[in-house]
C-alpha cells in the first residue's frame, strides 16, 4: 500500500505546558523500531530525494518548520510541517524531498524498521520503473 496523510496528535496540556505522546496502535499505525532527528540544517539545503520500499514513517517538526515534497509517480504534493501536534505518515513507494528548513527546525522521524540502505530507492528513474511495475 502507498499512501500518506497527516495525523493530528492530541496535546495534553496543563498549567505547566504541553505534552504529546505517540503510541503504537493509538496514534501511530506501526511498531516504532527506530527514531532519528534532523536538525541544524543549513540554509537552502534540500534532503531526501529517495523512496522507500517497505518502510513506514511519521515525521514531526517538533520545532520550526520544513516542507515535504511527496511524489507517488504520477503527481506531486507539498506539505509544510510546522506544528508539533501534527505528524506526516508516509507508507510505501512515495518519492520524498525535504526543503525550506527553518534554521531552528528539529524534524523527528519515527520509523517502522531499523536502518537498511537496501530499502532505499535513490534513483528517480528507478523509482518510476518500480512504481509502474516495470522492474
Ligand atoms: C527519510 C527522510 C525523511 C543512518 O545511518 N541511520 C539512519 O537511521 C538514517 C535515517 C540515516 N543514516 C545515515 C545514512 C546517510 O549516510 O545518515 C546519513 C544521512 O541519511 P540520508 O541522506 O538518507 O538523510 P535524508 O535526510 O536524505 O533522509 C532521511 C532518511 O534517511 C529517510 O529514510 O525518509 O529522512
UniProtKB/TrEMBL annotation:
Per UniProt, the keywords (alphabetical) are: Isomerase
Q: Name a GO molecular-function annotation.
A: isomerase activity
| Pfam families per UniProt | FdtA
Q: Where is the signal peptide?
A: none
Q: Where is the Sugar 3,4-ketoisomerase QdtA cupin domain?
A: 4-131
The UniProt entry, under InterPro entries, shows:
QdtA_cupin_dom (IPR008894), RmlC-like_jellyroll (IPR014710), RmlC_Cupin_sf (IPR011051)
Q: Per its record, how is this protein called by name?
A: dTDP-6-deoxy-3,4-keto-hexulose isomerase
